[in-house]
Amino acid sequence: MNSPDLAVKAEDLTKVYRNGVLANDRLNVDVRRGQVYGLLGPNGAGKSTLVQQVMGLIRPTSGNVWVFGVDADRNPERVKRMIGYLPQTSFAMRDLRGEEAIYFTGRLKGLSHKETLRQRDAFIEQFEVDEIRRKPIMQLSGGMQRLTGFIMALLGSPPLLVLDEPTNDLDPLRRRAVWEAIRRAVVYDGAACLLVTHNVLEAERVVDRVALIDEGRVLGEGTPGAMKSRLGDTIRLELWLRDGAALTRAQETKLSTLGTLHQPRPQHLLLRVPQDRVGRTIDLVLTEIGTEAVEDFRLATASLEDVYVEIVGRSLEDSERDEVKQDAAQDSLNAEQIGN
Amino acid sequence: MTSSNTYRLRSLWLSLNHFLQNYLHLTAVIVLEFRQWLTMILSISVLLNLGMVFAFSFISGSRDPELGRYFVSGAAVMSLVTLGVMMVAQDMAQSRRNGAILYYASLPISKTAFILAVVSGNGIAAVPGMIITLLVGSWYFGFTLAINPLIFAAIPLSAISLAGVGAAIGLGIPNWRVAGLVAQATMFFIMFFAPVMIPLDRLPTILQLTGKILPPTYAAQAFRASLQPDITVALLIDLAILAVFGLGSLAIVAKTLKWRLE
Question: What is the CATH number of domain A233-301?
Answer without folding.
Answer: 3.30.2130.10
